[in-house]
Design brief:
The chain has 321 residues and is of the alpha+beta class. The protein contains 8 helices and 16 strands. It folds into 2 domains: 168 residues, Ribosomal Protein S5, domain 2; 140 residues, GHMP kinase, C-terminal domain (Alpha-Beta Plaits, 2-Layer Sandwich). A 6-stranded mixed β-sheet has the order 8-7-9-6-1-16. Strand 7 and strand 8 form a beta hairpin. Bound molecules: ligand DP6.
């Protein structure tokens, strides 16, 4: 019986992953860039033992059905690599509030890939871990390496992996996550990826992605905040245009979401270094230089519809604890 625990941060995408060329392998139609969110993490313990079935608890609640199946499919890959048959007990906790609009699948599958491979006696390279995490959730591939990360679309399963483009200390950015009230249940990313191709705008978005990736990577490497803010807002708006025009249409924004866009652009025009981006939800990630984070948090809290603000600096790599 071997037990191992690992933890990983969620991440926020600056150039978004939206749509797969292979849904089963989670091979994306385009590359993406993100930053890990420090201080927020999922911690997962995996024990291989003599039980008859895999089991899963998340924040002490037993999970069955689709959630468990998705975890078992990663455990199957690990069992195959390690040549073992034991079933596993998986228990996972998040230190960020559930329903806070932070995509928990990225941190969850990154922590699972690391903990389960270690518990099975494997020592995988960062690229192998990233590939394994990707099979559970595409964005999880980006929660394995440290800091600012790029996931290359690759040519196939082997090379569609993420790697760090700069360590956390490279650029002192903070993500102020404005939580707005999203009353209706959102469509999950997995369903969203599957219908991305029904939007007439998706091909144009995908074809243009190398350009946006180059701009975004360069603005990070050069620490050019103004250009960085422009490209992340542009990329987020492009992805949401695809979402809104797919069949069925996905409209993740609430009135408060759009209110924050206007405020952020006005603040930037008046000299405050801020830029927004939104994943598959209504909450708005407002990126700023850390020296302005207190001011940005205060202003966000005053906006209509903002229920809470979470604050995260640039996070490190997934790690065994
Ligand atoms: C909008 O990685 O959550 O956040 O692979 O089906 O789990 P699955 O999807 P997921 O999709 C993330 C979508 C996004 C953009 C991004 O993080 O790049």
């Amino acid at each position: 019986m071997t037990t191992k625990t690992a933890q990983a941060n969620p991440n926020i995408a600056f150039i978004k992953y939206w749509g797969n060329r292979d849904n089963n392998l989670r091979l994306p139609v385009n590359g993406s860039i993100s930053m890990n969110l420090d201080g927020l993490f999922t911690r997962t313990t995996v024990t291989f033992n003599s039980s008859k079935q895999d089991s899963l608890t998340i924040n002490d609640h037993a999970v069955l059905g689709k959630g468990l199946e998705r975890v078992s499919s990663i455990l199957d890959l690990v069992r195959e690599m390690a040549n073992i048959n034991e079933r596993a007990e998986v228990s996972s906790t998040n230190n960020f509030p559930a329903g806070a609009g932070i995509a928990s699948s990225a941190a969850a599958f990154a922590a699972l890939a690391l903990a389960s491979s270690h518990a099975a006696g494997l020592t995988l390279s960062e690229a192998q871990l990233s590939r394994l995490a990707r099979r559970g959730s595409g964005s999880a591939s980006r929660s394995i390496p440290s800091g600012f990360v790029e996931w290359k679309m690759g040519t196939g399963d082997d090379d569609s992996v993420a790697e760090s483009i700069a360590p956390p200390e490279h650029w002192d950015l903070t993500d102020c996550i404005a939580i707005v009230n999203a009353s209706h249940k959102k469509t999950g990313s997995t369903e969203g990826h599957a219908i991305a191709g029904t939007s007439p705008l998706q091909n144009a978005r995908v074809e243009d992605t190398p350009r946006r990736l180059d701009i975004c990577r360069n603005t990070i490497l050069k620490k050019d905040f103004e250009a960085f803010a422009n490209i992340i807002e542009h990329d987020s708006d492009v992805m949401h245009s695809v979402m809104m025009t797919s069949n069925p249409p996905l409209m993740y924004w609430q009135a408060a979401t759009v209110g924050i866009f206007h405020a952020v652009r006005e603040w930037r025009a008046n000299g405050l270094p801020v830029g927004y981006t939104v994943d598959a939800g209504a909450n708005v990630h407002v990126l700023c230089l850390t020296e302005k984070a207190k001011e940005v948090e205060k202003r966000l809290r005053e906006l209509p519809g903002v229920e809470n603000v979470l604050v995260a600096k640039v996070g490190g790599a997934a790690q065994v604890v």
